[in-house]
Records
---
Amino acid sequence: MSLSETSAPGWKARFKRWFHSWASPKWFYEKSARWLPWLSIPAVLLILSGLVWGLFFAPQDYQQGNSFRIFYLHVPAAFLSQSIFMMMAIAGAINLIWRIKLADMAAKHCAPIGASFAILALATGAIWGKPTWGAWWVWDARLTAMLILLFLYLGVIALYSAIDNRETAGRSTAILSLVGLVNIPIIKYSVDWWNTLHQPATFTLTEKPAMPFEMWFPALLVVLGFYLFFTWMLFKRMRAEVVEREFKAKWLQKELTQK
Amino acid sequence: MPADLGFSALLKRDLKLAFRQKSDIINPLMFFVMVITLFPLGISPDPNELAVIAPGVVWVAALLASMLSMENMFRSDFDDGSLERMLVSPLPGFLIALAKVITHFLVTGLPLVIISPILAYMLNMPSAGYGVMMLSLLLGLPTLSLVGAIGSALTVGLKRGALLLPLLVIPLFIPVLIFGTGALQGVIMEQPVSGQLSVLAALLLFSLASAPFACAASLKVSMGNG
């Protein structure tokens, strides 16, 4: 690999080396130990400040009063569960193309975290639905799309756990999550179409009026905090996975006994 | 040219096998009829109520009947080792997948389309809907076979594959179900349905262009040489 490299590698070579370093669980395990505090502390600060601001200080909604405040948990959770699915499919594709072990680990551990965010979005949606729509569950287009997203996550998790060979499991779920990713916009579009056909336009909740800054900014903080929290959790899970897969490796035993 | 010959030979072989093993054709049909029988018994024999649910019931029952036979799309060829032979042959993987999908549709989907007017009549669906129902099934069921083939290929080597397959493919079937029943409800309410049928056709063309490749990749992964 380093044969063609000169003493001063260009940015291309450096990028290549940086990209290749992701193929090494050892590199990840050593580096990520130093990254964790940079993820966990900002995550907690952002989520706390966003939630405190949103729940106590942001102005009330002129129609829904205080009940709208669950928005600060609901929308970021829904947002994250969708991005995590995309991340899972991309990591799966990287695993399929370049056979990078860490990408496989990332894809594997995206699934339970993403499913948790989807459940959180559904639960907060139900709690929000009770005061606004008068029912814990209505077949609203967005809620239904979120439920189907949860089904897709559960399918990925079920497939992974059904296959004994770890490599086959990783590659099979990578294909499934890519197929799911292609289908998500189609499902979303069809559910939107189905909903507008069947329901009278009583639920205008999804069409929010343009929000003032003090209302949406705390939500943005929570979204950013959730992203960092997700990365933190993902790295912790991937580190545990590295330990599980590589526990016979010398470097890892050294690493673990040093502490 | 040799790849072409291999494709038609495979298609002929699969169709011949299916017609010898009549249960592949008859069992999904019986399932379709029996599931539809459950609805009047479970909900109400009132003709007006049945007419309301008929489009959804016919479509859901056809979807389930088609799905239940998907598990066998690659299973017997996997069990006796011929699937492995096919995959190492010069015939490209996506053509193997396509041959299996066409066989599945001709053996399972097409009989459902043909028998569906009888069941629609029993559910008191207005007769104006029969043509659109058959057309929507004709456009939708091949899409289900195409998408389901990916799930079937992913679960082919698994002992617990039978219950796993529906979990993987049902979420992916939802758009077809929505537009299939949408077309049917539209025609019963005397609205134009060319939009829904066009979307069904678009879904069919899109999955025809993409699913065989995903299916071939899944087969290779399942056989352990992806």
---
Amino acid sequence: MMTTYERKQFLELVQQFRLATEANREALASKFASITQNQASEGSPIQPVLGFCMDEAGNKERGDAMFNYVLSRCDIVYWPMPSVEPSLRGKVEIKQAAYKHAMVPVKVTKHIVMLCGTNPHDIDGIRNLFNVTATGEQYPIFVLSEPSRIMQALTQFA
Amino acid sequence: MNIQDIPPQTLNDVYKTIAQRHETEPAKLTKDKIEEDEFMAALAYNRGSPLIEPQDLSEELLGLCRQSSRELDPRGMAEYKFVPLTIRGQTLLVISSCPWDPMMVEVISGYFPQCSQVRFALTSPQTLGQLLSQLQGEGPAPMAGYTSGRPGTPTRPLSTTAPPPKATVPAPPPPGPAPAGIPPITIAGAPPVPKYAQPPKPAELPKPVQGALGADAGSLSQEEVNCLINLLLQEANKLLAAKRITKP
């Protein structure tokens, strides 16, 4: 099952890029659910819905256009080099939250926690990852990056 | 960070944010005692911008900046306090210590007319100076209000012109919820007409047409010819922009 936030982005992209017709939209959603269920059972990072839609786009240009569309539709800043904050790479709880939401903590200081994800709607993801990452009263900052970069960054967890 | 450069509303919001964190009233904050790190963090949070601090100046970041700024005049970047980081689609990501400066936004838009959106990563003037120095691979960059101690190189004269035709402030965010705790980035109001606009680099210009400047062209230096062509291009851009505006 998709979360509300995943579904929101899914429907937005399916409609904008005509990834599926009204008739087979649910089949596409089921395909995503099936993929992510397998990933969850294997303990792998969960593919973000944007990455799934980009894969379904058919070619790289359309996939890129999809990401650029997401970027242009929100006021969240693009981050070109997501990488897990080195001091957090061994923390299981953070890893689990990061895998679940396809989101990484890229910077943690005394004053800020900077998280990088792919879905601007995923408020729960931001909240959950922030809660396990923050060590005090830091300010949360959320930035966006490509699903492929996020998935790559997720492999940095021990 | 020189807080006098920050728009009053932004500054008030930053103090409110800091006061909330300290569970107090903004009026009760001892502003002189706020650490610069905390102030910058609150400012970044209020803008929803990533914060670039000295420890973030990695080789990867420098590489991206180098790639994006290779055709730009370092003195122009220092003067307007920005370094482009990367372009994604039509969105340009810029590191700046004064992202609220509409003139800087205009200048950037002139440099990158293909980018319809400009987003900012915030940094302090000191870190920006450090970044510029590292990009140049030499001593401190000639930041405005910042003296390097080395003999100053004359900044290229910037012509007083109208803004480039495609210059725009970042598009306003579409309606719709932003993630909780992440304030939207907005640059309110239309930008004023900048006093300066950086002329395009000579390398990007078409070659001068032989004879187009008459017999005296031979007595002009290449720089002067480039300058004249810049002026012509800017006038042409203005005419095109006017035509676009008046087009039904």
